[in-house]
Amino acid sequence: MAGGRRQRNKTANTHTIPNEQAGTRERELRKDFYYVLQMDSAESEVLARYQTLLSQGAAQFAESYYNYLFDNPSIADVLYSYENDGGDVGDLVRSQLNQLLRIIGPLEDGDLIRIGHLHQQRGVKPVWLIGAYRLYLNHLLKLIGEMPGLKPDERSALENALVKRVFLFMGLMIEGHLDRLQQSHAVDLTQHNGELERMQQLLSNIPQLIWSYDVPGACLQYLNPPARVLCNGKGEGPIPCLMAIHEDDRAKAEAAWQQAMDGQPAEAEVRLQGRGNSQAWHRLSLYPFRQRRRVVRIDAILDDITRQHENLERLEHLATTDELTELANRTLWQDRVNQALAQARRDERQSVVLMLLDLDHFKVLNDTLGHQAGDDLLCQVAQRLCGVLRDSDTLARLGGDEFGVLMPAVEDPVRAGEQVAGKILECFRAPYSHGGEHLYFSTSIGIAHAPQHGSDADTLLSHADIAMYQAKRNELGFAFYEPGVAAASTAQLQFSTQLRHALERNEFELHYQPKVDIASHQLCGAEALLRWRHPQQGLVPPGGFLAMAEQIGLMAPITNWVLVTALRQCKAWQEAGIHIPVSVNLSTRTFQTPRLLERIEWALQEAGVPGDCLEVEVTEQTLMKDLDQGAELLRKLHDLGVHVAIDDFGTGYSSLSRLRHLPLNTLKIDRSFLSERASREDDPVIVRSIIDLGHNLGLQVLGEGVENDTAWNLLESLGCDAVQGYHVSQPLPDQRFSSWIQDGGWSNRVQ
């Protein structure tokens, strides 16, 4: 089955022998075959005499040879594969026939070794060659037997020569087959050894400890270099590093090994002893390999997971610890509360005391000094509180300036609560310090205890919260939960809770009261007034909730919302062709906040309007509390282009002479001079003085609370610049305000 004339080489691993090398190899082998077969020139002469007669049956043999090839399924598969690779099967078979015919021809140096090499490369088995030569030999012997007049000694010599020649050809091709097989094996072995070396290098560079254990042979099959280092080069036993594992974890490792011996993959996290007292966490992974339902090998990996353990511990710490104070956080505290309650249920003699405390007026201090100062003070408070509690108690920061205290396993909850509350209050007697200054503030403590005040954590926490609000109204600084007086506190608590969520639920809204120029009757501004659309109580004015907002620390976010909402509305008016400023009231605490200027700058940027679109209104009393600080803020607002109005002017008459030093824009005459007291004889005199003072200082003067023609006419006669009040319009929601403007506003009414 020699190679055909057309062939597509698709085999990746074709280790061919060069023709010159194959020829040399064949010449060397012929000598051995000549000697073994005892071949001489006599056999060649006999075959030469009868070559013509032996060749006469070639066509007949070709048909039987074709049948032999294609009747054998395995040979046929090789031929079809050869054809699929682009070869011509006809040419291939014809070349093989020609090769067989050479047996009876002159003996020449040929390429039998190379042909044997090609046979092996294409998958032709030596047994198929033997069958082909046997078939051809039978054909020739039959021809010899049918030759007329052939003498017995001639017949014997011819048959003997023919058999030797067949063995020579067949042997040389089989030798070529074996040479190619041996060379291919050598190349494969080289590649295998190279891959094995690369695998060894790879395993050497892997930081994990890897080994493989032969279970029937009870010995280690493989131990990678890192594992050898750990075992000091003496790996023994199924877990060679067992003695390096912490003694408390060895049982886990042995249990995992037994699970692997039972045929199940297993894992165990263990600590390995390092130098000195160092320890490192490792994950031991065991993978059993079965044969015939029996575990014959276990592969093991020991992976360093110290960093994962540290990260997990760090995450657990973050999940259960307050980042600022390093105290327990709400999650850990509630978990310990539940544990303490569960223990108390098992022992009726034990009670659980729960305390909630917050720092009175801490929000004001935090806003005034800044968040960094507030954080520093909270840490000082936490440190002092830790010093007065038992080791078994849990102190937690629950959020903001709110702390929780858990006292488990208490026999007399009232006495214990009073004693600890007294110690906590004592922590606030001495001043706290920040920036070299002494600061004083107090706390209010609410106390509830189980099972008297509730049997679950949520109930106790709620009752302690109610008691804390009771404590803010008594002189002791702490209060126990009292069910009889809890209803009012519960309502207040519910109201404060609803207020906390008002912003996120979009329950706040702004109403706008127009300001009108007296001379032109034209709109000259609008004051934004805050309202709360309470889910049950309806529209609540600011007097109904701002005091509580101050108390629970909501003024900053509420003020931010008012500023940016009002300025966005001003932007919308501008886009509609209405160019008026919007006024916003600032409370005393808001005005004294150090970061107020930043918040106003942020609101202007968020709304995309210049500073002259905003007017801030502060009361005379607010401004005079710290005139130096207030003057500095007013100058910065003036630099931004923001206008400033003094609201409720006239109630602090003694400070009028100091106004000339302040960058103001507007004086608003207090409504008390224009409403219920408008009939007093001295009121017009005061109003005239305020108007004259304002004009002398270059300020616009506005009268607020104008509810009738009398007040309007008075202000108009005294030269007041502008007014606002119900006589012009009540405060209107943004859509109604826009409609009011479109309908002509005040100008339309007076026309």
Shape: elongated
From the N-terminal CA to the C-terminal CA, the straight-line distance is 120 Å
> Approximately what portion of the residues adopt beta-strand conformation?
15-25%
What's the total number of strands? 22
Rg of Cα set? 53 Å
Largest sheet: number of strands, sense, barrel closure:
8 strands, mixed, barrel
pLDDT < 50 runs, ≥5 residues:
1-15
What strand order characterises the main sheet? 13-14-16-17-18-19-20-21
- State the share of residues found in helices, binned by percent: 40-55%
Number of helices: 28
Residue-averaged pLDDT:
81
Task: Explain what this protein looks like in three dimensions.
The strands form four sheets. An eight-stranded mixed barrel has the order 13-14-16-17-18-19-20-21, surrounded by four helices. The N terminus is likely disordered. It has 28 helices and 22 strands. A hairpin with a 2-residue loop joins strand 9 and strand 10. 50% of the residues lie in helices and 19% in strands. Helix 17 packs across helix 18. The relative contact order is 0.05. The protein is elongated. With 751 residues, the protein is of the alpha/beta class.
